[in-house]
Amino acid sequence: MPLKLALLLSLIAGIAEPAGASNEPPQILAMKPLVVPIVSSDRLDGALRVTFALTAPNEAALARLTQRLPELRAISVGEAVEFSRLHVSTQMPVDAARLRHALTTALHDSGVASVLITEVSATA
Q: Measured between alpha carbons, how far is 38 from 46 in angstroms, rounded to an integer?
């Protein structure tokens, strides 16, 4: 009886996995920290500092991301500046979830699976 139960569980697990799913863990590409200005009412209020990493679904995608690192950094800087302008104040905590979503959306077309923010701060 335990053999039948094990077989049944393995069949259920096989059905539950999406087609084409890989057992390979996501690959992580650490980025250098970004520091962008916080501008409010046409004056410099402080700096937004973000340390983050990009994830790729497999090693081949990670290799492609590594080759495109300068382009990915430029996209990230542009998105961080825009986020800082619209959503950051030195008087409030930074909405890291919103920033992560903005960066992931901006980098999605580049083959980035997701963005992992490891540190974020807004200082005067």
A: 5
Nearest to 122 by CA among 99, 90, 91, 77: 90
98 C-beta neighbours (distance < 10 Å), count: 13
In angstroms, the CA 33 to CA 37 distance is 13
Q: For residue 94, which of 38, 33, 55 has the smallest C-alpha distance?
A: 38
Integer Cα distance of 73 and 34 in angstroms = 9
Measured between alpha carbons, how far is residue 50 from residues 20, 81, 86, 104, 122 in Å?
34, 11, 16, 14, 9
Q: What is the pTM of this model?
A: 0.77
Q: What is the pLDDT of residue 42?
A: 82
Of 78, 73, 68, 79, whose CA–CA distance to 111 is shortest? 68
What's residue 82's pLDDT? Answer: 95
Distance CA 21, CA 64 (A): 20
